[in-house]
Design goal:
Blueprint lengths: L1 H12 L28 E8 L6 E16 L2 E8 L4 E7 L2 E8 L5 E9 L7 E8 L8 E18 L2 E15 L6 E10 L3 E13 L2 E15 L2
Antiparallel strand pairs: 1-2, 1-12, 2-3, 3-4, 4-5, 5-6, 7-8, 8-9, 9-10, 10-11, 11-12
Length: 225
């Protein structure tokens, strides 16, 4: 179904975590930035997927490599997932990007602006993602609205207290689905560690289609270089 593709796109987009054009140069991450690109750094995450009747848990590790990749004129640092595949992150000034290829019909390459660390609490930014859907002659647009909910806070995750944390909330919408589509995506980022915790709730009830996504992720430990 058409809406099935949209929910797949939305879920995949926020689990790898198009965009507005940005021509600024790439900044080398520092210990005070919300990204660590030092080769050999590792992050171990625990994920609980309560989307179905029975929760599923999984653990995985992200490892920073010594490789960079230039995509659309922007230098991305390459990270490996322990379950296979790569993650691509870039820092441009105060803007943090994630690049991913979404496995929907025709394939979609996405640059997601997931964090702006210079914005004050209450500030927002939006992105439009274009999805090609069979039998629809024009791209279907999925809009992500991001908000800095809290800034400079302390947050304890798995017994570790992180300071100067930024809390970002994201909501998704599409004109194709005028009702029955709700989302609540919350992400927490700490200096030098990046993502320390996230929760994603997406509910879709439209015509005969019902989908539910409920996934929580926590940083269990990290070894940073």
């Amino acid at each position: 179904m058409k809406t099935k593709l949209i929910i797949l796109f939305a879920v995949t987009l926020f689990f790898t975590a198009c965009s507005k054009k940005d021509d600024s140069g790439t900044t080398t991450p520092t210990n005070s930035s919300y990204m660590n690109a030092n080769a050999g750094s590792t992050w171990s995450y625990h994920e609980v997927d309560s989307s179905g009747a029975t929760p599923n848990t999984s653990d995985y590790t992200v490892t920073s490599t010594s490789q960079d990749s230039t995509i659309n004129g922007r230098k991305y640092h390459v990270y490996n997932y322990s379950y296979g595949g790569n993650n691509y992150l870039a820092l441009s000034g105060n803007d943090y990007y994630q690049f991913d290829s979404i496995p929907v019909s025709g394939g979609v390459n996405v640059e997601r602006l997931y964090l702006k660390d210079n914005l004050a609490a209450g500030s927002t930014w939006t992105q439009d993602f274009n999805l090609t859907v069979p039998n629809i002659p024009i791209p279907v647009t999925l809009t992500a609205t991001n908000k800095i909910v809290e800034k400079g806070i302390s947050r304890t995750v798995n017994g570790v207290n992180y300071t100067n944390v930024i809390h970002v909330s994201t909501s998704l919408s599409s004109q194709l689905i005028p009702s029955g589509f709700t989302s609540a995506i919350d992400s927490y980022y700490a200096p030098n560690y990046g993502l320390i915790e996230s929760s994603t709730l997406i509910q879709l009830s439209y015509l005969t289609l019902t989908e539910n996504v409920n996934i929580k992720t926590q940083l269990m430990s990290a070894s940073l270089k």
